[in-house]
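Let's do one together. I've listed all components of the complex below, 939 residues spread over two lines.
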Amino acid sequence: MKKEIEFTINGKSRKLTVKPNELLLNVIREDLGLTGTKYGCGTGECGACTVLIDEEPVLSCLTLAITVDKKKVTTIEGIGTDENPHPLQQAFVETGAVQCGFCTPGMILSAKTLLDKNPNPTEDEIKRAIEGNLCRCTGYIKIIEAIKLASVRMGGRRK
Amino acid sequence: MKYSYMGKGVPRIDAFEKVTGTALYTGDLRFPGMLYTKLLKSPLGHARIVNIDTGEAEKLPGVRAVLIGKEAPYKFGIYMGDKTVLASGKVRHVGEPVAAVAADTEEIAERAVELIKVEYEELPGAFDVLKAMEDGAPLVHENMSEYRHAPFIYPKSGTNIANHFKLRKGDVERGFKEADVVIENEFYQPQVQNVQMETHTSIGQWLPNGQINIWTSAQSPFAVRHLLSVGLGVPLHKINVVVPYLGGGFGGKAGLHWEPLVVLLSKKAGGRPVRLVMTREEQFYTTAVRQGFYARIKTGAKRDGKITAGAFFYVWDAGAYADYGVNITRAAGYSCTGPYEIPHIKCDSLTVYTNHPYGTAYRGFGHPEFHFATERQMDLLARAIGMDPVEFRLKNAAVPGRITATGEKLREDAGRVDECIKAVVEAIGWGKKAPKEVNGKLRGKGIAALWKAPAMPSSTSSSAILKLNEDGSVTLSISSTEMGQGTPTGLAQMVADELQMPIEKVKVVTKRETDFSPYTWQTVASRGLFMEGNATLDAVRNLKEQVKTTAAELLGVPKKELEVAEERVFALGRPDKSIPLAKLATAGIFPDGRGIGGPVLGYGYYTAEGLTNLDPETGQGLPALMWTFGAQGAEVEVDPETGDVRVVKMASAFDIGRAINPLLLKGQVYGGIVQGIGSALMEEFIFDERGALLNKNLTDYKICRTQDIPEEMVFIPIENPQRNAPHGVRGIGEHPRISIEPAIANAIYDAAGIDLFEIPMNRERVWRALRKKGEKRAFA
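Okay, and this is what the predicted structure of the assembly comes out as:
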């Protein structure tokens, strides 16, 4: 039995009819064509599928699409534009925080929630905020550096 | 010079696409009519397939093709053609695919897989690599002698030994007699997984006219094309392989993997494109993993610290298929000593089939495994003769002028392991007084050195095409794939420097496509920047030659007086004799309108120089295009109660020849170190007694998370340029991941006085060793 849901995706309102067991990850990638959100494990262990629901990071591979009814979903495609990238996106580019890029969208979204709530995080707070996002390329050092740089640029004052 | 990009931390050219989520990976591609694949996998480690009933599955609406092994009898392989894409006749490991279904949706394919009935007759398995070598062990491949293999691979018919690499130098028995101290030890590393964040993903299409199209997460598009052509017996030019961005490779996507399967499914489904995305679980036990490793090493030294002899016995748990494993065995064999000169050497390195998941390349190509053994042994031998392990290493270091195990005299420009060791010693504070206990935790330091050369065919080659565009910009095509290492960015820097133009005007084509892209052997072995770099510089020379030829005619100036810079061709000191590159891109034009020359397409190549085959009995010859040397220093903290080990600090030095891009270089180094720490402390395949992998997910098989990284990492680049390298560079992709395990193990000894011989050095192993040593705080 399909069900109609209405939600906001990257600032735009959408109506979709989905199966009750359809995963949010599949709806985002297949129905909405937003392939920046990645499949890494399907079991909530790697964080590659991270998206924001009402500004909170969630694992879209473990989230049923019907649960986002009336909610606000943000993916990596929705946080900046070509002309005006999000400071985190810019910082990831400049500091060398990107390698293969597969974990990057989820990593940036987890970091965004952190900085939105806590403009001046400590290194430990940064590490905790992204500990659910696995990266096999970078050793995390440059990612942590990028988040620090973005926090400075977004007006957070570092201790 | 107006533009200088060498040695600059230019942000990677693909970064913006990746931070905005617009970079496309194979799994992001969509094709009309695309079908989805699911696999039925073997629950048994070794069993005869008595019967497969696919009747019910085929009847399910939406199922377009069901394929079983006997319909796909093709053998594939790069070094050892031993692999079918579906088990045929018998299954050889738990997780091996037995049948595959292509359907309209993944859900339908999944349901169809559940409807397939397989009858097995279980066979005794080979689940222990050493027992698998014994007479009478169950054979994993009864027909191994019929398999096609590379000429430098030596299988032993009637056994599970898929390759026996031999190296003999000097007289090892005499060497041991000359020694004052001889020690012998055994070491072990388990099978592990590469854990690329992107699982293996392939889309295949076999059209009715015989054209085969493939889009795949492969490291090496030309290797895929070649191996598929040979394996299926179809003409090479009928196959087109496209590789977009890769979500990590680390060796696990080298060679050929699941491309033949999707292609065969497509043929059965009437030519519709068929996609396979490995689940994470399949990534662990269906697709390729890193081989397990056992070593027994005997080394002798004089009291003055000179090593006289080494006997190296390496056994590799290849798992069910040894296609790539046989060459890892060989590469580890010819590098067996580590970066030291040893006059008398005997090495036997053997690839052994077992009923484990099949092995393949993993960052370091056997070197992280055997360096654990050799660099532990260096510390143990230094202790046995009562010498400082750093002094002992320096005394035997393979510095220029010294002779390697294969008889190569290291050139003056070969790089300096001694400088790497000294740099790490300084950075880690070796020999400096430091507290042995901090907050109840035991502290210690350890050092390990390393070397590695690319393992490649002796005549391996790369090529590059550099196209001049109508606005004066250039487009570089290469076929080395982008999987996070950043080679294309380094090449763009080289082109911009050589042409003296802004890097913004240099485009490197993202997609690799065998129908259009220039040939390269593979994207492996830390060879990219060296090989494609040389090819790219050659293409720049060729492009310059072409534009100068036309400009000479137009300007009336001899060609040799012309220069190319700032998007112009000009005669030095003669401002009137100058023409923009843009005006030469499609053809030059004389004042009267006549055209001259034509579209400018620079072509360049590079072929490895001077490499030779190795003697089958002695292993003597020249296998190494370049050696990258390095050293790792670790400072650790051991919890005497729980056995928990934390890496406090890592200091690393590599002789990279020349740093083209320090920003990307650091990315390789830090990333490699953290991968190595994961292997050293936590990563391990755990099997039950019938060969079933118990930890095939990222909860039970941990890789490093943010909290597992060292508090401090120091990287010291050493820059002794290599003569035949582009701008002097050496490969660095794999090296930061080598010798992490022994550096940490040596530090654990320094901290807690316990000697570890097995990887990973997890809490249980360390705790048991602490108990054995009588550490009272290690509570039961």
